Amino acid sequence: MDTLNPLLVSSSAGLNMESRGGVWKNPTLICVPIMADSIAKMVVDMAKAKASSADLVEIRLDTLNSFNPYEDLKVLIKECPLPTLFTYRPVWEGGQYDGDEKERLDVLRLAMELGADYIDVELKVAHDFMKSIDGKKPEKLKVIVSSHNYQSTPSVEELGNLVARIQSTRADIVKIVTTALEITDVARIFQITVHSQVPIIGLVMGERGLISRILCAKFGGYLTFGTLEAGVVSAPGQPTINDLLNLYNFRQLGPDTKVYGVIGKPVGHSKSPMLYNEAFKSAGFNGVYVHLLVDDLSTFLQSYSSTDFAGFSCTIPHKEAAVKCCDEVDPIAKSIGAVNCIIRRQSDGKLFGYNTDYVGAISAIEDGLPD
């Protein structure tokens, strides 16, 4: 069972938090993917990304309908008000480019020469690509070497080996993107991220992987992706930049942030994150509240056993199972046979279960009765 050790989590590079005008801000960047089919639309979207407070943009060249590399790259770099990350993703790595491989890599080299800040190169071709730019790489350019797994999330050992393989290419930044079959898969990416000695982007695709895109700021990830519009994503499960900044208070998340959430299946419809995150913000409390799409409650609670995961609202279909998963259960909750609120005691990590549903139900009945 992969679990998150609170001591290891707390040892994350919290000292990297930056102070901006007296407000603490984590160093994790927010990148907006730009996926328009024309250069003109890309220029418009880059301006929108800047207005949305993004830190950089990922320009997905493989989404363009027509592309004149030299002229178009010059325009994109000149017109972009933010640092640029160029990606030219081939079909074999989940992108849309299906042309000549040499031409694709030539375009990335050209972007580098014209002043790109970052380029993304797939692990499969990274060794040869890095050899081709040896001695020519501008000082400001950072090369992200990426690996995408659209089927699953490997074991911690396999992920560690993957990081080592990417590092061996002389990548400036390691990028690993996997797919969540269960929310517990994300814990493995958190482990790899928090232990990494090199800049790392660790993200998990799908609804079950959403927390990877938010909590990467807590565990020391280099960047996350936030879209301009809901549903217009470059990978499954990406939140909007508006939600990252205004719903999850992303800039203020850090190693000491306590994590709360609503556990359910389905769960994406829940308005609880809106309520609790606003309350945390108003109270100045260092916490974040997230959606947790959980298939098996027991394995979830074992995987996220750190006291950093401090409490949960529990909804359908897990309320009855929660009674068995808690170390102690309030007598009323036990007699009802259902728990809708789980608190993790900070001193020893024990789970306490309560039921607050009955209070609301009885109050509603009483309010409806005639005086």
TrEMBL record:
Protein name according to UniProt: Dehydroquinate dehydratase / shikimate dehydrogenas, putative isoform 4
Residue stretches spanning the membrane: none
Superkingdom in the source lineage: Eukaryota
One Pfam entry name: DHquinase_I
GO molecular function: 3-dehydroquinate dehydratase activity; shikimate 3-dehydrogenase (NADP+) activity
HAMAP family: AroD (MF_00214)
InterPro entries found in the cross-reference section: Aldolase_TIM, Aminoacid_DH-like_N_sf, DHquinase_I, Shikimate_DH-bd_N, Shikimate_DH_fam
Residue stretches making up the Shikimate dehydrogenase substrate binding N-terminal domain: 262-342
